[in-house]
Design brief:
The chain is mainly β. It has a domain at 8-38 and 48-115: Beta Barrel (OB fold (Dihydrolipoamide Acetyltransferase, E2P)). 11% of the residues lie in helices and 39% in strands. The chain has two helices and six strands. Strand 2 (19-22) and strand 3 (28-37) form a beta hairpin. The radius of gyration is 18 Å and the shape is globular.
Length: 150
Amino acid sequence: MSISYNKVVLVGRLTRDPEIKFSTSGTQISLFTLAVDRPTRSGSDDSSNTDFIRIVSFGKLAEFAGNYLSKGRLVLVEGSLRIRKWKTADGDPRSTAEIVANAIRFLETRSQVESSPEVVNEPEKKEDLSDDITFFGSEPTDTNGDDIPF
């Protein structure tokens, strides 16, 4: 029996709004690209040291990505590396590397995103979002109650 481990953790900014698709069985799929800076030895700010990595998510996580992620958002993505292979109509073999996400976390508060000059074309603001950093799967807090949350 061989031992294997496939886990990837990336921090980067979305290059555009997620693309939403549905499989033939009805499962929601989101596709987006993260721009992830690669550190340089010289410390220079060279844009050629940025990797553009394709991210794929399915089901509830894809729904989350479609509803709350947008171009320019700084996120952390956890997932696994997958090399997808296929043949073109001409029979030429093709392959691409992508990350299948199993968790996505915001790394900026909503107020930081709104004041960031790098973020352009933000979708309309959703009124039910709080100003806190939101983790997918976390329970929303009741901000209208008078009770102390202990």
